[in-house]
Amino acid sequence: MNLNIFQQPRKVFIILFSFFFLFSLWIYAIPLFSNYQKPAKESKSIANGRLVWQKYNCHTCHQLYGLGGYLGPDLTNTYSRNKENETYLKGIIKSGVRQMPKFNLTDDETRELLAFLKDVDASGTADVNSYQPEINGTFSLKK
Amino acid sequence: MKNIGIILVRIALLLLLAGLFFGHLASETYQMTEAKNGVLGFLSLRPLHVSSAYLGIITAGLGFISIVIQKRKNTFLSKLLQYSHLALWVIALIGIFYSYFTGDFGGREYWEFNPIWAVPIFVSFIIFLIYYLYQLGFKEKWNVYQWMWLTGIIFFIFTFIENYLWLFPYFRSHFIADMTLQWKVNGSLVGAVNQIIYGVAFYLMEKISGDNKTSYQKLSFALYFLGLFNLMFNWGHHIYLLPTEKIIHYIAYAVSMTEWILFIRIFYKWNKQIKENKQHYYFFPYRFLMAADYWVIINLGMALLMSIPAINLYTHGTHITVAHAMGTTIGINTMIILAASFYFIKPSFLSIKTLKLNSLFFWSTQLILLTFLISLIGMGIQRALWQVGLKKSTFSQMTQASSLWTLLFIILGTLLMIFMGYFIIYLILKSLKKNQVT
Q1: If B234 and its partner were Cys, which of A131, B5, B230, B357 is the partner (CB 3.0–4.6 Å)?
Q2: Closest residue of A to B38, CA-based?
Q3: d(C-alpha B367, C-alpha B344), whole Å
Q4: Does the CB of A119 have a partner CB in chain B at under 8 Å?
Q5: pTM of the model
Q6: Does residue B300 lie in a domain region?
């Protein structure tokens, strides 16, 4: 039996791919084991809001958890940042600001987009100051 | 038989040229104070820039593989597979640009086009996989770059399917799981494309050095396994801030740190590298490979630091990440593509005058790229300081405060478009001349 792995790239590939596949299956299953369950109607609204976010290319300028474009601010916690936040956000979407154009969203689209942003906001914080670096090179939420 | 590979390479060069042009237009938005709508708006320009560059790199990779493996078999089935792949790829590209020019979005970051155009991309990749396996066969022992190409093709297909799982509400309605999956896809797709492009670099080195034993050596396969391992498991370093399962972060952190082996190896063989650089310096394809090698050092160094979560916390979401992304796509991938294009289209210059002119453009490009990345890092540092609250200002004030860096970024980006554009146009024109392509 040949134990030299460098002579057997096919076996190494298959073994690594199998681990990768199992890892992927576990990631697909995360929603099943999450405490994050929502009522069906709310869940549908959030899922549709994600589509509105994509349809209007919001990620081109904005980030969620630091992922996305760089022209505008991160919107992870924008929902809770201002008082009367929904009215404020609706105003920005309708009238635009600086490089951001006006968006003509339907009432349903606006409602769904806000449901999505509310959900994102509730999922955690993207504020760097809320975290502290650890000695092992990781970081954690400040208590 | 018509050389389908070179057609793909020409398309790739045109896409890269378009990527530079749209990138230049998009960068100007940073200095504007009012919104622009339509195709000249940032909402269209950024996807046009990113997709042109990304698809250009993928198309080039497929083109070079085609050129290399086309000679192995010339049957009816080979031709059918090649033409079918090319036709579907062109249909997808036309559809994607139609989608962007008409504002028909709906996809995700980097793939913003209407998802219907993902179908021809997917089918064309399946056909390309069949073509690849048919041309290579299973009788002989494969060398390392043949394994890298196969890896790139298979992982592209696998992750491309994952890239559209969001179409199912099950994934979409759970934000954190959905973002985790989205960045698993983005990370692995880049890894898959890198396997294809780095495989091309390996092929070139074999041909330039004339030593075909290297691509069967243990060390070559060890480096391939390391790249494969990282492709599969290091993508979590994109999402350290995302409150997903902690184990994903730990795996990414641990796996990313294995790349120190590559970094240390570069310095271990430094003297050999310098000697080799001097030996092949005047061979133009090698010149670009040499440039890619040095860009690897800079970008790998940055990537290693940014993969440490405690550092990533401060650089994440800033232009420092963009500098790293630009450094790898331009400094590494595009340099390898230019090296391979020169190798297959115009390996050497007949007159000293032309060689000197091209040398001047070559070194200017490298210098401009370096300062371009420094300008992005400058913008990134401004944003990082603002993010940690050291600068008590609004987002708008912060962007205004970094306007000097931004201006530098726009000017250097424009110069980069001109200098890199020169090489790309030169290669396109040369490739159109009869009997030019080797």
Answers
A1: B230
A2: A101
A3: 26
A4: yes
A5: 0.95
A6: no
Rounded distance between C-alpha atoms, residue B270 and residue B298, angstroms = 14
- The H-or-E segment that residue A35 falls in is none
Domain total in chain B: 1
The closest of B312, B346, B323, B305 to B431, measured between CA atoms, is: B346
Q: Does A16 touch chain B (CB under 8 A)?
A: yes
Q: Report whether B214 contacts A2 (CB < 8 A).
A: no
At B331-373, the pLDDT tens digits run 999 999 999 999 999 777 778 898 899 999 999 999 999 999 9
Q: Which residues of A touch B115 (CB under 8 A)?
A: none
Q: Could you tell me the end-to-end alpha-carbon distance of chain B, in angstroms, rounded to an integer?
A: 14
Whether chain B has a CB inside 8 Å of the CB on A122: the answer is no
Q: Is residue B310 part of a domain?
A: no
Q: Per-residue confidence at A98, pLDDT binned at 50, 70, 90?
A: confident
Closest CA in chain A for residue B109 = A59
Q: What is the ipTM score, two decimals?
A: 0.94
Asked, for residue B180, whether it belongs to a domain, the answer is no
Range of the domain at B62: 1-118
Q: Cβ B179–A73 below 8 Å, yes or no?
A: no
For the cut 60, the answer to whether the pLDDT of residue B258 exceeds it is yes
Sort out which chain B residues have CB atoms less than 8 A from A56's CB and list them.
Answer: 43, 105
- Most confident range (mean pLDDT) of A41-45, A85-89, A126-130, B282-286 is A126-130
Residues B68-92 have a mean pLDDT of 96
| Residue in B112, B245, B395 closest to A57 by CB | B112
B313 vs A131: CB contact, 8 Å cut-off? yes
A137 touching B, CB under 8 A? yes
What part of A 34-73 touches B (C-beta under 8 Å)?
A: 34, 36, 38, 43-44, 46-47, 50-51, 54-57, 59-61, 63-73
Q: Which of B190, B193, B416, B202 is nearest to B289 (CA)?
A: B202
Tokens 């298959």 label which residue? A14
**Within-domain flag for B429:** no
Residue among B31, B37, B43 with most chain A CBs within 10 A, to mutate: B43
Q: Residue B181: its chain A contacts at CB < 8 A?
A: 27-28
Q: Where are the domains of chain A?
A: 40-127
CATH number, span A40-127: 1.10.760.10
